């Protein structure tokens, strides 16, 4: 008689099959031995922080002491805009994961000290302003108080509205020029499909393209300068275009020298010969033959 075979599983199921059947996330975890950062679930699963703020907090906690986390450094490092990064930093300050204080050095320079917390610290609320009592001197009880003579105070002169200085007024953009600039930016995708720009990109880049048009640059030459030799892969089209529009801006064409108009031709009233003069009359020869009056 054959020996019975044991076909039962040697250990309990880990639940991976049920997770895959239900469509949930599957974790494949590899133990880190170096170059890792421990992040608490109170941050990774925060219910009130945005994803940008959570990701920025993880990035800051992974940096060594002394690393720069200013807005301009983070904008160069990540594709998010300056507004989104500044808003994320304010979120982390409000929840106690970041503290920024301004200090004045001995040299007089003002710097910002940034402190990152892997556990949220207490956020001190601004204390309400304390009213300062104003002492009112009391008159002596024994001595009679004479009525003070009324003091006439001249009414202040009405404030005059400031006169605008036309030299300091910002130039109003030409609507037609900006419309042509926007059309050039929208047409770049026909020459290079990777140059797909958002509406915000069009609005921010249109003034730079308008500067090219003001310097008599043809639309075809602008398109050629912005679409030639693009890097592969191209991560940030708007940043590349902004750099090229600034670095390759053509020189301003000097105005043409003034040339006075030619003196028109006239027909002599006496001999009918042609001569140049600003107004009709007699030619030089006919004027010489006129008798001189005494």
Description of the structure:
Strand 3 and strand 4 (274-276) form a beta hairpin. This protein has helices spanning 16-22, 41-44, 51-61, 71-77, 82-94, 175-186, 188-191, 199-214, 219-227, 237-247, 284-289, and strands at 98-104, 110-116, 265-267, 274-276. It is 34% helix and 7% strand. It has eleven helices and four strands. The strands form two sheets. Strands 1-2 form a two-stranded antiparallel sheet. A two-stranded antiparallel sheet has the order 3-4. The radius of gyration is 40 Å and the shape is elongated. It has 294 residues and is mainly alpha-helical. The chain starts with 15 loop residues before the first helix and ends in a 5-residue tail after the last helix. Among the domains are: 41-116, Orthogonal Bundle (Arc Repressor Mutant, subunit A), CATH 1.10.10; 175-247, no CATH class.
